Amino acid sequence: MPLAALNRRFGLADQLKFVEGPGGLIFAEIDNALGTAYLCLQGAHITTFRPKDQDEPVIWLSDYAKFAPGKSIRGGAPVCWPWFGAHATESGFPGHGFARTVMWEVTASGALASGETEITLALAENEQSRAILATQWPHKSRVELNVVVGKSLKANLITSNLGDADFVIGEALHTYFQIGDIAEIKVRGLEGCEYVDKIGVDKAGGVNRRTQDGAVTFDGEVDRVYVNTEATCVIEDSRLKRRIVVAKSGSRSTVVWTPWTEKADKMGDFGPDGWRKMVCVESVNALENVVVIPAGQSHAMSVEYSAEPL
């Protein structure tokens, strides 16, 4: 839909407008009395979010992020769907699925009585998406993302099975949170949880499974998939003197990730020290927590991100 038509149909006076951003990509710009956010229609990708009572954003976006059609954006809250990580059988398929690099279409918007702003998107049906679906996801389905921006940020990822056979999905909101310094934060809420350590392998050459002892702290690269947990996580940030609360439902896995300096340097879109200012605490369904969606039914994974004084 052209930019002018988007604004006529879904724009909201003083709250929501659609603008052309870097790389020619279209963004929803949301600015109400409670919070601000940007959402890229490519990938239904929330790129930034800041409550009005916070000096710093809650959602981190790299200063060196690259914006281009068909390319993923470093930072924000990428939608990983319909699988998380590498595809189970096809090494040539994109990591974390295709949803984050294809166009989504706006289907609804609204100004809520609470002062919040709501927008809903669905994976677009166009020549690009049909070609991808035919080869990578041959299932009749619909995926939608509903976002509510206010003092907190709420996102609800809904997958509907429109076919006559069950299918399995992996999924994530691969969210990057803004922090003061990675070496000074703690992530609470995962104490006692089992996790898969993706950094190394055990002595037998298999996957390293461990149990979290105390809060998660950081002094090097961390890439962990915590399984069988629906816990709310809290990022304690002594430098910014705040807690970021990551609440979720419909998600049975949590991923905690920081690339640290060597890996970030190789990626090329973090900048010299960008990795120090972010941590990923991702709401996920992966490994043994992938989701079977029966024919004719739907599954929803919901998150809410908020910040409070430490």
Structural class, from helix and strand content? Answer: mainly beta
Instruction: Name the shape in a single word.
Output: globular
CATH class: Mainly Beta
SSE pattern, N- to C-terminal? HEEEEEEEHEEEEEEEEEEEEHEEE
What is the number of independent domains?
1
* Total strands: 22
Sheet of most strands? 8 strands, antiparallel
Rg value: 19 Å
Which stretches of 5+ consecutive residues score pLDDT under 50?
A: none
Work out the helix count: 3
Distance between the termini: 44 Å
* CATH architecture label name: Distorted Sandwich
Mean pLDDT: 95
**If you consult CATH, what is the topology?**
Beta-galactosidase, Chain A, domain 5
Strand content: 35-45%
Task: List key phrases describing it.
310 residues, mainly beta, Beta-galactosidase, Chain A, domain 5, eight-stranded antiparallel sheet, globular
